[in-house]
What we know:
The chain is α/β, with parallel strands linked by helices. The chain is about 35% helix and about 25% strand. It is built from seven helices and eleven strands. The protein has helices at about 10-20, 60-70, 85-95, 110-125, 150-160, 215-230, 240-245; strands spanning about 1-5, 25-30, 50-55, 75-80, 100-105, 130-140, 165-170, 180-190, 195-200, 205-210, 235-240. Strand 9 (about 195-200) and strand 10 (about 205-210) form a beta hairpin. The chain starts with a strand and ends with a helix. The mean pLDDT is about 95.
Amino acid sequence: MLRIALIGYGKMGRMIESMAAQQGAEVVAVIDPGQSGCGGEISESSIRDAEVCIEFSHPSAVIGNIGRICELGKNLVVGTTGWAERLEEVKRMVNAAGIGMIYGSNLSIGMNLFYEIVEVAARDFSAYREYDVFGYELHHRQKADSPSGTARELSGILLEAGLGKSSAQYDKLDRRIDPGELHFASVRAGFVPGTHVVCFDSEADTVELTHRVRNRSGFALGALKAAHWIAGKQGLHTFRDFIRTGK
């Protein structure tokens, strides 16, 4: 059994804990200063028995958590988003510590296969300038960031595909959109677990690719599989690196 520590005990942390045993993992520590009954801080004693830490906390806490886990020499999985602008800093910390870290804007196996599908579709559509491309995403009203990290990942795929788009716009526009801008909109409302849509649109027809989350179990499954994959490895890896191994 792989021994894991959960950093963050919100909805995702609880889901991971509920699925750990069936995925060959044992939760040996739970750290969340905002939850009663959990450990209050990441320390040598609190995560001593863990082989891998799984971090699902908050964008405001994630960099500090990564730094502390690096100091303690534990490999980790990071599912928290909202820190992409500090990626180079994290890479330096991981390499200096000699640990392994895997991260992703979305740890769903289905979504990461969806990335691959969108990449292939975008490359094919790039040959036909009759088609314009756009996207949108829907999430529950408690989500801390907008746009989602997944929307940014999908936008990056589309920007690199040769579709004639050079920048992404995530906010509302009080003007006509420039032909070189990719519009990827966000909606926050209700209890939607997560929906991401990419559309290729022409005067003649529309092709729509959709990934729709039913519940959080897909993220938990991906996090646990990623924890097994990163155990014993070094360096910074993306969840797509794991997906492309086919394991």
